[in-house]
Description:
The complex is a heterotetramer.
Chain A: H1 6-24, H2 27-55, E1 58-61, E2 72-75, H3 77-104, H4 110-129, H5 133-152, H6 158-188, H7 193-199, H8 207-223, H9 232-239, H10 242-267, H11 270-276, H12 279-299, H13 304-324, H14 328-359, H15 370-373, H16 375-389, H17 395-410, H18 413-439, H19 454-472, H20 475-488
Antiparallel strand pairs in A: 1-2
Chain B: H1 8-16, H2 22-42, E1 48-53, E2 56-62, H3 65-84, H4 91-108, H5 113-132, H6 137-168, H7 188-200, H8 208-213, H9 219-240, H10 246-264, H11 268-289, H12 292-323, H13 339-352, H14 359-373, H15 377-403, H16 417-435, H17 437-441, H18 456-479, E3 489-490, H19 494-515, H20 520-538, H21 550-569
Antiparallel strand pairs in B: 1-2
Helix pairs in contact in B: 1-2, 1-4, 2-3, 2-4, 3-4, 3-9, 3-12, 3-16, 4-5, 4-9, 5-6, 5-9, 6-7, 7-9, 9-11, 9-12, 10-11, 10-15, 11-12, 11-14, 11-15, 12-13, 12-14, 12-16, 13-15, 13-16, 14-16, 15-18, 19-20
Chain D: H1 2-19, H2 34-57, E1 58-59
Amino acid sequence: MTLAQLPALQVILPLIAAPLCLLLRSGRLAWLLSILVSATALIIAVLLLRLVLENGTVIYTYGGWAAPWGIEYRVDIANAFVLAIVTSISTVVLLFSRVGASWEIKSSEQSLFYTAYLLCLTGLLGMTVTGDAFNLFVFLEISSLSSYVLIAMGPDRRGLTAAYQYLIMGTIGATFILIAVGLLYMVTGTLNMADLANLLPALEQSRTVRVAFAFLTVGIGLKLAMFPLHLWLPNAYAYAPHVVSAFLAATATKVAVYVLVRFIYDVFGSSFAFDSMPLQSILVVLGAAAVLSGSTVAIFQHNIKRMLGYSSVAQIGYMILGISLASVSGLTATLVHLLNHALMKGGLFLALACMAFQLGGTRLVDLAGAGRRMPWTSAAFVVGGLSLIGVPLTAGFVSKWLLVVAVLEAGWWPVLIVIAVGSLLAVAYIWRVIEMIYFRSATNPDEHSEETHWSLLAPVWLLIVANVYFGLHTQWSVGVAQRAAQMLFGGPG
Amino acid sequence: MSSLPPGLILILGGLVLPVLPRSVQAKGALVLPVLGLLQLLFLSEGMSVDVEIAGYSLLPVRVDKLSLVFGYIFYIAAFLAALYALHVRDTTQHVAAMMYVGSAIGAVFAGDLITLFVYWEITALTSVFLIWANRSERAYRAGLRYLVIQIGSGVLLLSGILFYFHESGSLLFTQLIGPGESLVTAGPGVWLIFLAFGIKCAFPLLHNWLQDAYPQATITGAVFLSAFTTKLAVYALARGFPGTEALIGIGVVMTLFPIFFAVIENDLRKVLCYSLNNQLGFMVVGIGIGTELALNGAIAHAFVHILYKALLFMSMGAVLYRTGTIRASELGGLYRSMPWTAAFCIVGAMSISAFPLFSGFVAKSLTMSAVIEGYYVLTFIGLLVASAGVMEHSGIKIPYFAFFGRDSGIRCREAPIHMCLAMGIAAVLCIGIGCFPDLLYALLPYPVDYEPYADFGHSLTQFQLLLFAALAFAVLLRMGLYPPEQNAINLDTDWFYRRLAPNVIHSITNNLANVTDRLTATTRLAGRTLMRSVIRHYGPEGTLARTWPTGSMVLWIAVLLAASLVLYFV
Amino acid sequence: MKDIPVLRVVTKITIPIILLFAMYVQFHGDYGPGGGFQAGVIFAAAFILYGLVFGTSAVRQVVSPGILRLLTALGLLLFAGVGILTMLLGGDYLDYNTLGQDPLHGQHLGIFLVELGVGITVAAVMIIFFLAFAGRRD
Amino acid sequence: MIFRLLLALCILLVVLELVVHRHSTFPWEGWLGFYAVWGFISLFGVVIIGKQLRRFIKRREDYYDE
């Protein structure tokens, strides 16, 4: 097997490991297999990214059937970047979940948990890597179905309702995407995305294409929790097992954003989406609304996990704003924020998981006095929170800066104000947590240190340090995102 | 070693401090400024480090004479303050202080606006812990107000930078207003940056965070605070806005209004804060005039001011440390118990009042000569009044009410030895610079051909001004006209956000309610409707936060799909 | 429902036929209409019918949930394993040509194995679904 | 005692002005005893104005704590 097989292996490895986990039955062995597979997937993703950065787009055909008849995997800078994000987050979360998952998942169900986890990873990677619209739908379903299972696995019974609602929403979203793909197939006779991109410009006036576009944007909007289709997200994140919240918050919506970017800029083309369709005004309004309402609601939440969920809605709003700018700099901001938001939310959810285990809950009052009892975890949460706000020296600042520069370039002053207000609101909701952690004493008086185990702290801090690293050293993240954005605008891959 | 950005030693060192045992931390904090100063000596002028980040070329380190002089004095002040804080066993304070100083020094050597902004915010974030370290509810609230204002200054700075970058395409931190331009014609970016600097420099009406927060800081924290934040702003103004006419007027007002507040203030550390504000005014005037002589004056003033203001804060801190109070109405006659502290305090007082042979004189004379040279008559008269005011509150009031005056009956021990040592070094520096001004002049960015003692007449008139002011003080005391010290607080601009704003909201609701009894219930409701509606929509059980029934979620999808279909077809 | 003799008898007669038909759809899939997916569903339908008439515990006696779980995994592994095998043999993933000495044989074998994997998994999953939903009342 | 000493010192300073040559830019600056008078008036004025200011801005110490 040579380098040429990497795109397939990226997806196949977790796919094969998933049933193996089911057969293993022992939670510990299943974990070992999962982390091995995830780490290998990470290595593959890194290799792919290097390959793509040096040699341009890599194409892989299944079963020797050339596109547009067969299914092809098409790895370019944009999705190689997303692959690297997903696999690295997945690996870090798995590092955490050796101990982290055992707290919430019954030992008899652990192998099932890892099976679902790997299937979800498979789905996410598949969605990212594939160059075939129908194949994308299949992987979307794989990832969605397994994530419903993951969400419902926690000890909190409200997780069941949350998973059920997510199931309904997700299925409608997936169906919309399927309908859209079907409509496109109807007019073009092809499912291959590159082929679609070639054929669609000629069919710009076709009503069918327009309907397909509508179904597609709404369908993907559901998956990425675009305001006002985000209603499933806060509960799903809040009541899922903590590791699952961390994993999904950092990866699932990111992949959905990528898919939206791929369809808008690559398959339909930005001229169709923004010139002949009023997509721009829709996205700007929805993005701004997401930033403002998500952040405001987050301020009033009692449960920190729900708060982080609403903050995710707001952060997705920033990404939508970046997409709506229809410029290389805007798209760069969105892509960089994919990475940075994955790092900050992953870190925050994991830190919160540690606190929840030690202090007995994720409600705001549970965290009283945590600064004294769990200094390292609290510090991690603070740094992650600063990054979420967009304080300089953190990754969050880089994203915001890029977005603001892009907005200035377009001269959209109102959007600038929205971003500023959003950041201030973020200060407010993060400050509530910080105040509780450091300035309120614990309700129970014995304030001995209850710092969590180092094997849990290590993955948390890995993500937090990454937040600072990508805040200081932006050459790599911004550089890759910039090239990806240029490529999506039709520049050289 | 020389490629390390200045200030980083303190920031990183500060982060390492918590690892050390508690008893060693204070000593560690003492060593760090020495190391930093050594590094600074190795830096050569004109050196710069530039980096390219995300397509913007940045200049995180730029060394020139202006940066260096601030670098030196910041390190000296950090050393003195750390020596003064040798008894403190509080990790938070040591870490915060070191990182605060480090970032202030980093900011002074920042060659581009982004780097400046980063350090600017770190100084705010770290310094607030010196206030919170007092661990009282009052300190917490004051710290929070301080933090909000400081962060606000940072946010203004960042927005200003964005606009400025958009207008000029440059991120370099140099003079932001061209020689021929004025603030009026400058773009919004320059305005915002000016405002951000102004907040940190405690411009009139933007000043109150200083008097609000510093007196709430810990004893040692106040010494640190007095030295860096505002002087960083002075540096920034000297770099970005030299010769901006508006600054002269702002500066004169700044020198004048705090002296009236200082007369009636009871908290002696707060008196020092008003005095600090007044001294900043002299520097701002110098920057506003913008000639080489004037800029030299402003910078020299900043240099010596850091020393004597730290000395005064240290002496008042020692009083607070030993007696537990800093209210003028409860103090007096302490020279018996704390003779050394009293002596050091008098040296500081004479320096700040600019007695000849003390450091204030050799610095202030530069600015005053520049004012005369430029023929700014009103400014000159204003500054003379302000000089008499300085004599009143810092020169006489502080030492008089703490150490002399009515005997309070308090008997305590002399300040600890390390405090005395820190004050002693500062006092020696004050006198040394006063006697040998060339040591200071050699550090200034522009060549100095000014000799403060060449014209004896100048010294004489200064003596006259100060001693007759002292005479007036004595006369006022004898006539019983001097306002007695009282346990009270005096309102300042913080009233607007601490009292007026909450009251207005309150009274609107209540007054409306009183209009008619019948409408009472409904008007109260109306007053609270805004908050209620926010809660209703955004609160924990609000419309936007509620767990929606699946059916209505689906309805939303249908609505959105229909809307986008319609939009796409139109 | 097992008290009704007609149902009982008819069920016992039809189940072998259903299974046989499932086999036909499975193995004839590469020539005529059919394939693993359809065959798996038909195969499971036999079990579901059996369960409807004789109760889910009767089905559990025939195939234990453990075995079903194993079969689910095995089917998927068979499918994926074929793909890996073709990769090891030097082709792309699921490039059946590499399996036999000539492409025709290769394609035949490849499709056969892959469809078998699909059939096993689909049948097992269908039965698991049925047991999961119908078994709630027992 | 101290007051008389201060008074004497002040008178001495004004007398000295007759002997010492003094450079002045503004004409009024050169008047005999200008700085002395100005210093006296300034401080006097500052204290008196400050005292009046108290009428408007003095509040109880716990004003903000309610």
